[in-house]
Design brief:
This is Type IV pilus assembly protein PilW. By secondary structure, this protein is of the alpha+beta class. The protein has one domain. The chain is 23% helix and 30% strand. Strand 7 and strand 8 form a beta hairpin.
Length: 235
């Protein structure tokens, strides 16, 4: 039987495993790496969420602007348009377009009102009724559509976006029509007739409900398809 003698004093010992200091250093480095990776992932998720919000706000604004454009182009439309044609030799049209006269913008330009004919051909009276008056406005940061007189319906979801700006600017262009008159006006009031073409510019701005830093704006412009002819010719 062999006896194991204890190592002599001062003899070199072989190290096995990690020391406490090495383990703490390794854990610290690992935590730094994990923290960096977590921060990068958090930033990526935040940017992805912001991109989704920006896309949603932009799409909602575009859809609202397209609806407003489509509606305003119809302003002044009349079913019996032949009755509003200036007849040769007539001092004035048979009657003025009552629908086109209803187009207006509020003084602060955040509400627009207009009218067009929705009656059937048999029921058409060429007069704008309460059921033929429409409009757009912003109330409590929600874009609203007036579906018939004073019946306002929301167009945007306040849980998704908040409308911060809505403005409509009308830019009428008035063109005199002296060629319609066979005789000179000779000082006659409202002579010669005038053609009013309404151009409009719409500005929409909104921010995401859950991230006020996500803000989008949209500006579109067009012209109304139905012009207003006013005035008379000398008899």
């Amino acid at each position: 039987m062999r006896l194991k003698h204890p190592p002599r004093a001062g003899a070199a010992l072989t190290q096995q495993g990690l020391s406490l200091i090495e383990m703490m250093v390794g854990i610290t480095v690992g935590m730094i790496v994990v923290a960096g990776a977590s921060l990068m992932m958090t930033q990526q998720l935040s940017e992805h969420r912001r991109l989704l919000l920006e896309t949603q706000v932009q799409q909602d604004l575009r859809a609202a602007a397209d609806l407003i454009l489509r509606e305003l182009r119809r302003a002044g439309a009349m079913r019996q348009s032949a009755q509003f044609v200036w007849a040769a030799g007539s001092p004035a049209p048979l009657q003025e377009n009552d629908y086109a006269k209803r187009t207006s913008v509020s003084p602060n330009q955040n509400q627009v009102s207009y009218s067009y004919s929705v009656d059937s051909a048999a029921a058409e009276d060429n007069k704008s009724s309460d059921q033929e008056r429409f409009g757009f406005r912003v109330a409590n940061k929600v874009l609203q559509f007036e579906f018939t007189n004073n019946n306002w319906q929301p167009l945007t979801d306040p849980e998704v976006l908040l409308v911060t700006q809505f403005s409509v600017v009308l830019k009428p262009q008035v063109l005199p029509l002296p060629e319609l008159c066979e005789r000179p006006c000779a000082g006659l009031a409202n002579c010669p007739p005038q053609l009013t073409i309404n151009y409009f510019e719409i500005t929409l701005s909104a921010q995401a409900k859950h991230d006020p830093q996500v803000v989008r704006s949209l500006k579109v412009n067009d012209r109304m398809r139905n012009e207003l002819v006013t005035g008379v010719c000398a008899p």
